[in-house]
Specification:
The complex is a heterodimer of chains A (413) and B (226). With 413 residues, chain A is of the alpha/beta class. Helix content of chain A is 43%, strand content 14%. In chain A, the strands form two sheets. Chain A has a seven-stranded mixed sheet with strand order 1-3-2-4-5-6-7, covered by helices on one side. Chain A has a six-stranded parallel sheet with strand order 10-9-8-11-12-13, sandwiched between helices. In chain A, strand 5, helix 6 (159-169) and strand 6 form a beta-alpha-beta unit. In chain B, strands 1-2 form a two-stranded antiparallel ribbon. In chain B, helix 2 runs antiparallel to helix 6 (98-115) and helix 8 (148-157) packs antiparallel against helix 13 (208-224). The chains are: A alpha/beta (413), B mainly alpha (226).
Chain lengths: 413, 226
């Protein structure tokens, strides 16, 4: 019923030495050394698509290179299970939801079925997100070290769903959240792991200037004038109309262009409505480029970010907002809303500028366009911030450290 | 003489370690300056350490205006620049105990609340979440340094985390106003002047990389001394 995911090594660990330094790679090797004869299992709900699968697709082979063999299992469920877990997901994010006993029964039934299929006897078990959380019921005699990695924002959860989930979470040895703000009061230790980007992935790697020029040309963007960009799906919570209003204020002072690029509007009914709102707000301004990208267009996104003068993330609500880390990695000055995980990435006046309104965002953009030397400094410092905290190697280091701490605890060290 | 300076045998070799840290989220949250005072009363020593010493490593690349999480929060979330400057001026090297550091942090915030009561209950733009570091120390595969040349070679190769462990957080571990490097240079090699110069490097206006470069330059000068 379950699927063990075989992940081929794509980018060797040593390739990251040129980015993070050989000393960091040596440190990963030192941390991994005591873990090499141990067994590790990670379980999530999908092998492809979504941020968790994207991270595991890189994390598992990198750990493997260090001799830390992680078995990656993917939960299996029917349409009824995914319908319930999707509802749970939205409810845990704070959406209105009337939980029924039948939903809880379906959730438990599939977790029970998967429990009999997955070898949960590893010394270290990491369960990702709510879908497989009840697998903990299969733990034998409190064996191994079990960690629940929560990738979602639990700051305002639907109380019924959270109460149901909490009974399982409380049985783990520890939990991991992406921001202190997303965590809950729990009887188990809660650790902070930031989400990460892969600097060598297509979305973030260096690009040939010719390719960037081609992308600009394809979308009729003038490279000679300032380019303001927001990369986000067409969602009201990303406030694309607010971005247009900020741009319109900036436009009074600077001859600039605005790029709003996002994907997936065609197969998302709400996305299509928002896209229409955006088109209306853009009117007939030829300097506003509204680009509906394919669902997976990493090189185009990379090129648009690299070509930008200022990158905007004017979300009204946000999870962690890794598009900010992507822009900072490319040394771009960022103007972003102080919501969700964004202030962790944008330290105001140090690695970017925060804003709390349309007018505030417009002012900060104008400030950066007037002070390119400050924009450059913010971009440089933002790059260093990402390098220290938000790269896949940091994520791997966190897991190795956590495993080592558990190991030492069990050895009484 | 130059070769002697580089190859003089140390009484005890220097062993390079590294410390990987995890951040553990605590249960205390401050949404105003008044709440910050209460939290500073009750948070763990590990939390004080995390938001002062540890954050200096995390944000070492910022050499302007950033010194600890408390100062940054007061500046960015409560917009009280004067208090932020006072907090930022605290130098962790002046402290050999976290109790002293906690007392000074608390006093500064409490005094400000007393002098400006209109700001003490004002809600911050974002809350301050108290966290603490959990450390896993590991020996690096670098060979122990038995003389200055070997020490220089090891120092040039260690990670930021290892450098931070030996140069910054060691001050609390040693309960002394020094660091692992200076202590070894003085006690095992008898190089008191070099140890003192290394200890005087300003960790607030240098990044970890530039601080390391300065130490390497000081060692090079020492080796070349005739």
């Amino acid at each position: 019923m379950t699927t063990t995911v075989q992940v081929p090594a794509q980018i060797p660990l040593d390739s990251y030495a040129s980015i993070v330094g050989a000393a960091e790679i040596d440190e990963l090797k030192a941390l991994a050394r005591p873990l090499q004869d141990k067994k590790f299992t990670m379980v999530n709900s999908t092998a492809v698509g979504g941020g968790v699968a994207e991270i595991l697709n890189r994390l598992v082979p990198l750990a493997d290179e260090l001799g830390v063999k992680i078995r990656w299992e993917v939960l299996k469920g029917g349409p009824d299970f995914y319908e319930v877990t999707k509802s749970f997901h939205n409810a845990l994010h704070g959406a209105p939801y009337q939980a029924k006993q039948r939903d809880f029964d379906i959730f438990l039934q599939y977790n029970e079925q998967n429990r009999s299929q997955i070898d949960l006897g590893a010394e270290f078990v990491v369960i990702h997100d709510p879908q497989p959380a009840a697998l903990i019921n299969g733990r034998q005699n409190h064996s191994g070290h079990w960690v629940w990695r929560c990738h979602i924002d639990l700051s305002r959860p639907n109380q019924d769903v959270w109460n149901f989930l909490q009974q399982f979470v409380a049985q783990y040895d520890g939990s991991i959240f992406s921001s202190p703000e997303f965590s809950r009061q729990l009887p188990i230790p809660q650790y902070l792991f930031y989400p990460s980007i892969d600097p060598l992935a297509e979305k973030n790697r260096e690009l040939d200037p010719e390719f960037i020029e081609d992308v600009l040309s394809q979308y009729m963007i003038d490279p000679a004038r300032p380019i303001l960009t927001q990369i986000s799906r067409f969602d009201r919570l990303k406030d694309p109309v607010g971005v247009i209003r900020a741009y319109q204020i900036v436009k009074r002072y600077f001859d600039c262009q605005l790029v709003l690029a996002g994907g997936g509007a065609s197969d998302d009914p709400e996305g299509s409505v928002v896209l229409q709102e955006v088109m209306r707000a853009a009117g007939n301004d030829p300097d506003i480029k509204v680009l509906e990208l394919p669902a997976w267009a990493p090189l185009e996104v990379n090129a648009l970010q690299r070509a930008s003068t200022v990158v905007i993330q004017k979300s009204l609500r946000e999870g962690f907002g890794l598009t900010v880390a992507e822009a900072l990695w490319k040394k771009k000055p960022v103007v972003a809303s102080a919501v969700g995980g964004i202030p962790i990435q944008v330290i105001h006046k140090q690695t970017g500028l925060l804003a709390h309104s349309v007018e505030g965002a417009a002012y900060q953009i104008r400030y950066l366009l007037s002070h390119p030397e400050i924009a450059t400094r913010l971009g440089e410092q933002g790059h260093k911030h990402v390098k220290e905290n938000f790269l896949i190697t940091s994520n791997l280091k966190n897991y190795l450290t956590l495993f080592m701490i558990f190991l030492r605890q069990s050895q009484g060290a | 003489m130059s070769s002697e300076n580089g190859t003089q045998q140390a009484i005890k070799p220097f062993e390079f370690f590294t410390a990987a840290h995890l951040t553990r989220i605590g249960n205390q949250i401050a949404g105003s300056l008044a709440e910050m005072v209460t939290c500073l009363d009750h948070c763990s020593d590990a939390s004080i350490f995390h938001h002062t010493f540890q954050t200096l490593g995390t944000h070492h690349f910022l050499t302007e205006g950033f010194s600890n999480d408390f100062a940054q929060w007061v500046y960015a979330a409560t917009n009280r620049a004067e208090l932020a400057e006072q907090l930022a001026a605290l130098d962790v090297r002046d402290y050999v105990s976290l109790a002293e550091l906690r007392r000074d942090l608390r006093r500064m915030v409490a005094d400000y609340c007393r002098d400006f009561p209109q700001f003490s209950e004002q809600r911050a733009l974002e809350c301050f979440y108290f966290c603490e570091g959990v450390e896993a120390t590991t020996a690096l595969s670098l060979p122990p340094a038995s003389n200055l040349t070997q020490f220089r070679d090891g120092l040039s190769r260690i990670s930021h985390a290892s450098f931070h462990f030996h140069f910054i957080s060691s001050r609390l571990r040693l309960q002394l106003k020094t660091n692992d490097f200076s202590q070894w240079l003085a006690d095992s090699l008898g190089k008191h002047s070099l140890a003192s110069h290394v200890n005087r490097i300003d960790i607030y206006t240098n990044t970890l990389d530039s601080a390391r470069s300065k130490i390497l330059r000081l060692i090079d000068r020492e080796i070349k001394l005739s």
